[in-house]
Amino acid sequence: MSMSDPISDMIVRIKNAQNALLVSVEVPHSAQKVNILNVLKEEGYIKDYLVKDVRSGIKSIDVELKYSKSGKPAIQFIKRVSMPGRRFYTSCESFKTFFNGMGIYILSTSKGIFSDRDARREKIGGEVICKVF
Known about the structure:
3 helices; 34% strand; 25% helix; alpha+beta; single chain
């Protein structure tokens, strides 16, 4: 069975796992998902992720979720912005801050997947994948 939007599926799995206070969640593997998870790890929203082989030719990603000492999830809000039916592109000059600069946008650019801060530093724009706080 194919999914029409695997990135949204990953976002929903992470959101549901944190609502259930799970330690980790498993998502199907793709290179774009690994890049998105790398940005989330660099920004401190997840602890770590591990790519593992399920069987020959099939991989999955085990995402270790992060919580505060009081038990609150590190990701308070995550939402898909650009979807298969409605793409959203932006330039580096027209970025608006999210949650007064506390949240981030994750962008897919011609140079790879970046957070909005890194994209501003590189002076490149692209497709806004999701926003996270």
